[in-house]
Amino acid sequence: MITANTEFLSVIDKKADKLKADIICAKDCDLDIKGKTYYVSNNGCDLNDGLSPRTAIKTLDRIHTLPLEEGDGILLERGCEWRGNGVILRVNNITLGAYGEGAKPIINNSLKNYAVPHEWVKTDYPNVWKYKYPFGIDVGHIVCDEKIHCIKKCKGHYGFNEDLSELKNDLEFYSDRHDNDFLYMYSEQNPGERFRLIEAQRMVVGIKFVARKGIRIDNIHVKYAFFGVSMGSADNIHISNCEFGVIGGAGRFSNPDAPAMTRLGNGVEMYGICDNFVVENCYFHDIYDAGVTHQRSMHSPHNFPVIMSNVRYENNLFERCIYSIEYFCGQNNPDFDAKMVNILMKGNICRYAGGFGWQRPNRVARHIQGGWLNNRIPCYKSENFVIENNIFDRSIDVLVSCGPLEQAWLPEMKGNTYIQYAGKNYGGNFVPYDHYKPFDENIEKFIKEDRGEPDAVVAIVPEYDGMCD
After folding, report:
1. What are phi and psi of 348, to 5 degrees?
2. Contact in structure between 182 and 176 (CB atoms under 8 Å)
3. pTM for this model (two decimals)
């Protein structure tokens, strides 16, 4: 087994840095827009028709009033940023991309910069400040000066009981669901004076699909969103060269008296039946739940077959997500099938699983998450499922978790690199799936011989280095 020393890890760093640079600096693809092309720019005007860069429209809300037809395209100008609500794609066979020069266009779901001193008022509780205007929607995460992450307190997590007197540590905050989601923060100084920039991730989706087929997204940057991209059952979806960062953390209650809030948030989520779902050359970082996922909950009965086919995740970079890649595929109803067909996860670099997870009530982090089998129902059935030439680099919890109920449904592992801390978990890629394998002196033999991946690279990090914090 290789010892993952400084020299070894520096090679991984260089590979990740190169992939990140390639994604961030990616040129616009030939998007082959067959219909009309509409342009959106901060320098535009919503009275325009949007049919040329010179007559660009200005706001994302104006997109929703365009006379879009199948085959049309929407291009956002590079170097521009839109705050507030995201984009809803309602028409099939639509392209969303970029034009011009500079950085990727940004969809920023933080409504404004909240570092405004007079908008924060003292409360009767020591060092607890109230933002004077109601959000009206749950706030999932707050980032100050682009790098300081605040700690959300919500009912049922860490013993919090929705009492403002319980805010006692610096930069803890609470979104009061009983009172229009007013925001409260603990700080010895007025937050608006203390910071130059305060971003609030609200329960708003960056790009939402109502459409069900033929959506192409390229070179868009989504940040401070509830979900980066969210869709139900859909076919022919292609997402490339995008960045999704600081995603998730907002939540909801199953009923008003529920004992705890469920917090959510994925970078790209496909929920339902799909065919030809591709995510490639994207950068996912600081995500509350999964970077990318295809799933249909196994906990609710389906009265139809749930087939997920031709799914490909390739050449993506994941950093500090709870799960880099997640998949659910299960069926409570024995009269209907559920299976995955032609699944490929190839050439991805997955690093520091759990690194954004200190705000969660648990840190069940892993780079591949496909192994919830608590109720032992028929699930994770697959055909031609391949996980090949990926780098799985350190996790605060488990490295990979692939757990179907039958041997024939296991993904085929080829040429992957596994880097994990001594004393942490490799996880599982085997049947029966009722325990995890520790990452110890026996794990290389297990991966290469018992699991049939002789070309795997297995490296152990002798001591925890804090990279997953």
Report:
1. -85, 150
2. yes
3. 0.96
